[in-house]
Amino acid sequence: MSNTDSEVTHDVSVKLMAGEEADAIVAAAFVDNADITAEDYGSYITINGNERLEFSIETIVEELGRPYDVPNFLVVLASYTGQVDVADDRVFIKKAMST
């Protein structure tokens, strides 16, 4: 499939299973990332970005209003485009390196 002028390509993206946690993750993503978009498809939400997405657990906790951790984030994460890097307090999705 080739790109046309009307198509927008993103270096990184995530798909989240819809629900309370996904809503908090999306809200937190807009706090912690510049120039991202989110699309709600009913059963899942897609977040698109360029170069990298950062998901800070601290920001998600603030949005969610209750304790939350990386393992719970990974349960909601249905798929991603890019390279994932998981730390104790955040998850990064970075642009995939070319081979």
How do the helices and strands line up, and which of them pair or pack?
Elements: E1 12-17, H1 20-32, E2 37-40, E3 44-49, E4 52-56, H2 57-64, H3 70-76, E5 77-81, E6 83-86, E7 90-94
Antiparallel strand pairs: 1-3, 1-5, 2-3, 4-7, 6-7
Helix pairs in contact: 1-2
The average pLDDT score comes to: 91
| Count, helices | 3
Low-confidence stretches: 1-6
Structural class: alpha+beta
N-to-C terminal Cα separation, in Å? 20 Å
Main sheet characteristics: 4 strands, antiparallel
Envelope shape? globular
Number of strands: 7
Task: Give, in spatial order, the strands making up the sheet with the most strands.
Answer: 2-3-1-5
> What is the helical fraction, as a range of percent?
25-40%
Cα gyration radius (Å): 13 Å
Reading off the top of the CATH hierarchy, the class is best stated as Alpha Beta
Q: Using the coordinates shown, work out and report the CATH topology.
A: Phenol Hydroxylase P2 Protein
Assign the CATH superfamily: Monooxygenase component MmoB/DmpM
How would you characterize this protein structure?
The relative contact order is 0.25. Strand 2 and strand 3 form a beta hairpin. This protein has 3 helices and 7 strands; from the N terminus they run E-H-E-E-E-H-H-E-E-E. The chain has 99 residues and is α+β, with helices and mostly antiparallel strands. The strands form 2 sheets. Strands 2-3-1-5 form a 4-stranded antiparallel β-sheet. Strands 4-7-6 form a 3-stranded antiparallel β-sheet.
